[in-house]
Design brief:
Structural class: alpha/beta
Number of helices: 10
CATH topology: Protocatechuate 4,5-dioxygenase, Chain B
Distance between the termini: 17 Å
Order of helices and strands: EHHHEEEEHEHEHEHHHHEE
Shape: globular
Helix content: 25-40%
Number of strands: 10
Length: 284
Amino acid sequence: MAAITASVYTSHVPAIGAALDLGKSGEPYWQKVFAGYEFSKRWLKDNTPDVIFLVYNDHANAFSLDLIPTFAIGCAPEFAIADEGWGPRPVPKVIGHPELAAHIAQSVIQDDFDLTVVNRMPVDHGLTVPLSLMCGQPEKWPCPVIPFAVNVVQYPVPSGRRCFNLGRAIRKAVASFDAPLKVQVWGTGGMSHQLQGPRAGLINREWDNAFLDRLIADPAGLSQMPHIDYVREAGSEGIELVMWLIARGAMGDESGPGTPRVAHRFYHVPASNTAVGHLILENT
């Protein structure tokens, strides 16, 4: 049967993608950011999964204010790279895994989570920047990817509790898939940042690191945090961190052998006007 072997958490700052695409990753400003992912790239080569289930948010490329699903799962065989206003990023197209995606949709919907099934969905920097950080600049991505888009742009957005429980349902779905697949679940977005208004540029190092501590050791308790705490402490875009709870819920250690092993942890500010957080957890 399929199994979730690890989870990966990372910011998806668009400027990181631009730095890679324009050959600026070696510049002093960016060196410390990319240095934090050198271990991760080696780790992924040593622990390449059969499928990545990648949780991210769309930035008005696949969806608009006309139609914003709370949770959308990509079930297509492939996904084009979105043009975000200056042409698509020069990265490989994303190959999907329709069989596993459809199975997860079936299982999760039967567990009373309403998913939108999407069969054509251009993917933007929310998905491609994490892949670039973990994989570098390959000719093709190392495995199929199932895109899972979450609305954290237009209120109301899903609660941390809902996201954490959804992760549990995804784990159950993967475990019932009749093929020996190794699956990783990636949660992306965050950490503290605000892009507009009087608090634009807000970064809260102490809160971010406390969030990482609780994500590792007390995810169920962390999932009870109300939205207002994210917005007050981490800025208006800090709400993206609820997506990390989907990946954490999928680890399933509450009913398993124990807290996942921390393979890597990294935190850095700034990258553009955003705090970069990164974590790799392995199921034990």
